[in-house]
Design goal:
alpha/beta; Arc Repressor Mutant, subunit A; 3-stranded parallel β-sheet; two-stranded antiparallel ribbon; 19% strand
């Protein structure tokens, strides 16, 4: 698998970076995060202890459907569906159609690295 590098940046910082890249004024370095969270609180919520347990179950047991995952975790299917869609939006899991059209989640990365600046960064530069 691979490492997912994530960072914390405000909406304004992310927009400035995206615009600078689009205008050709800035290139992203290979080691820079490609996934951004708007706050440490949002990062902590997505990667709470319960959600890290969910990722562990996905990685170790590889359930073939949300029904199977619900049985393994004791969580409701509707809750799992919402959580997994959010995780997929951040690149933590990939949602795939399995046998008979069932949705299954697959862990994409085996390590997450957080870049946490202590001050505001100038993403446009």
């Amino acid at each position: 698998m691979s490492t997912l590098r994530v960072g914390i940046a405000s909406y304004e910082e992310m927009k400035a970076m995206t615009m600078a890249v689009a205008r050709g004024q800035r290139k992203l370095a290979l080691e820079e995060p490609r996934v951004w969270f708007p706050s440490t609180e949002s990062f902590a919520k997505i990667l709470s202890a319960g959600n890290r347990d969910l990722l562990r179950v996905l990685a170790e047991k590889a359930p073939g459907s949300l029904d199977e995952l619900a049985q393994l975790t004791g969580r409701k299917k509707s809750n799992l569906s919402r959580t997994l869609k959010t995780m997929a939006n951040y690149g933590l899991v990939r949602l795939e159609r399995g046998a008979r059209g069932r949705i299954a989640a697959k862990v994409v990365h085996d390590l997450i690295e957080l870049e946490l600046p202590l001050g505001r960064r100038d993403f446009a530069a």
